[in-house]
């Protein structure tokens, strides 16, 4: 008859073995489409509107080549493009009026009060959250958050020293159009792999937290008290 310790060991082994397979990046009850809002933007990023997704990649690539090869500043190129579009639209409308033809109707761009209030409320919540995080970092209340912010800023500085901002935006655009679609297609395999990585990182972070971060935060709090 097996002892209770053996049974507990077997159950712990099963739990640890199943933790990586049960891991979900977006939660158990949330699909990729629902996580991304479930609207037209989600359809675009998940390639449910293939022609629009393809146009995003093509236009992003053309814009990146123009900015990188020409060396012109973003403001100058954007102003020139808008100027050309406005002149073409104006000339087309004048020619249509001269020929007694009805010009193509353009949809009116109007922001509703409900949309503005919703966007402002969401922005206020996120901004307050960032301000609270910034306060905790600057006054030293949360050393773990301070450590994460330092690592992220250092990584951004290292990446920015090798590539330009335009290239970084282009890479972000391409990744935002390709990664969600690939994850939606291979979700089970990606979740299993990410579960194993998350388990290993959690183990190493726990060791670092116990040996370094906790001692540093304790010493800092002790210095403040003294």
TrEMBL record:
Question: Keyword Nucleotide-binding: yes or no?
Answer: no
The compartments listed are: Endoplasmic reticulum membrane
Q: Does the keyword Transmembrane apply?
A: yes
Q: Where is the composition biased (Acidic residues)?
A: 1-10
Main location class: endoplasmic reticulum
Residue spans crossing the bilayer: 52-67, 73-93, 162-183
Membrane topology is:
Multi-pass membrane protein
Instruction: Kindly state which keywords UniProt assigns to this record, in alphabetical order.
Output: Endoplasmic reticulum, Membrane, Transmembrane, Transmembrane helix
Q: Which InterPro entries match?
A: Reticulon (IPR003388), Reticulon-like (IPR045064)
What's a BP term from Gene Ontology annotated to this protein?
response to bacterium
All residue ranges annotated as the Reticulon domain in the record:
41-224
Could you name the Gene Ontology cellular component terms for this entry?
A: endoplasmic reticulum membrane
Q: Which intervals of the chain are annotated as region Disordered? A: 1-22
Family matches, as PANTHER family: RETICULON (PTHR10994), RETICULON-LIKE PROTEIN B16 (PTHR10994:SF67)
Protein name as catalogued: Reticulon-like protein
């Amino acid at each position: 008859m097996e002892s209770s310790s053996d049974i507990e060991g077997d159950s712990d082994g099963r739990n640890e073995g199943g933790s990586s397979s049960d891991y979900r990046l977006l939660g158990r009850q949330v699909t990729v489409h629902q996580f991304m809002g479930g609207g037209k933007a989600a359809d675009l990023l998940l390639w449910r509107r293939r022609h629009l997704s393809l146009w995003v990649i093509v236009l992003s690539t053309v814009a990146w080549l123009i900015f990188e090869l020409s060396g012109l500043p973003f403001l100058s190129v954007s102003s020139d493009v808008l100027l050309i579009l406005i002149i073409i639209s104006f000339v087309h409308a004048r020619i249509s009026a001269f020929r007694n033809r009805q010009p193509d109707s353009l949809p009116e761009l109007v922001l509703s009060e409900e949309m503005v209030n919703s966007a402002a409320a969401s922005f206020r919540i996120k901004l307050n959250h960032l301000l609270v995080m910034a306060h905790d970092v600057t006054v030293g209340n949360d050393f773990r958050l301070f450590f994460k912010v330092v690592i992220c800023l250092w990584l951004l500085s290292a990446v920015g020293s090798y590539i330009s901002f335009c290239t970084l935006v282009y890479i972000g655009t391409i990744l935002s159009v390709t990664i969600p679609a690939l994850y939606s297609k291979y979700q089970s395999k990606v979740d299993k792999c990410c579960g194993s990585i998350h388990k290993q990182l959690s183990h190493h972070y726990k060791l670092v937290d116990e040996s370094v971060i906790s001692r540093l935060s304790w010493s800092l709090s002790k210095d403040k008290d003294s």
